[in-house]
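Colleagues,

For the teaching module next term, I've prepared a clean inverse folding example: a structure given as tokens, and then the sequence designed for it. I'd like students to try predicting residues themselves before seeing the answer, so please don't circulate the second half yet.
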């Protein structure tokens, strides 16, 4: 695991008048944001999270020490972080934290460099890797077929993207070379 912190959520605003907040959770199961113990802000404040409900795209929660709407409003936009060493190790070699994939070098099955992973998205049908390179952006489903090798220790992964994705990338490379 890489050292540092992981962003687990962001306060999107207050909820009600008793200090509850609306949280955009970045955990696999949104309510699990409360399961990691106290979370820290960029300026070092620490909050214990207690989830009280759900609303459209967010969880409703109480943060320790926040007792009224004014205090909750002041937290709007506040990021909540967790120290990496607080996380359990992945269960097996096939389980990865998204943050561990960000920044990995990407090559195709022939060894050609394609760029680096810049984001991991979940649009509802499974995780998708966003890869940016000199030729532009490539989106690859994060499946064993499309990503046969993930080498965290080596800082790379190998992709076998659909042919149409490579064809679009090759066209973009050619246009870039031709100055178009």
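(Answer key — instructors only)
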């Amino acid at each position: 695991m890489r050292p540092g912190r992981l962003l687990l959520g962001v306060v999107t605003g207050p909820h009600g008048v008793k200090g509850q907040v609306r949280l955009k959770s970045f955990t696999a199961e949104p309510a699990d944001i409360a399961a990691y113990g106290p979370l820290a802000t960029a300026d070092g404040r620490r909050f214990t999270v207690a989830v009280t409900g759900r609303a459209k795209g967010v969880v409703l929660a109480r943060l320790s020490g926040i007792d009224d709407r004014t205090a909750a409003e002041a937290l709007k936009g506040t990021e909540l972080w967790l120290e990496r060493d607080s996380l359990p190790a992945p269960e097996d070699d096939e389980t990865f934290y998204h943050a561990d994939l960000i920044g990995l070098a990407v090559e195709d099955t022939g060894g050609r460099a394609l760029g680096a992973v810049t984001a991991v998205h979940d649009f509802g049908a499974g995780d998708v890797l966003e890869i940016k390179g000199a030729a532009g952006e490539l989106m690859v489903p994060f499946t064993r077929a499309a990503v046969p090798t993930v080498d965290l220790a080596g800082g790379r992964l190998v992709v076998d993207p659909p042919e149409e994705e490579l064809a679009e990338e090759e066209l973009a490379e050619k246009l870039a070379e031709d100055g178009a």
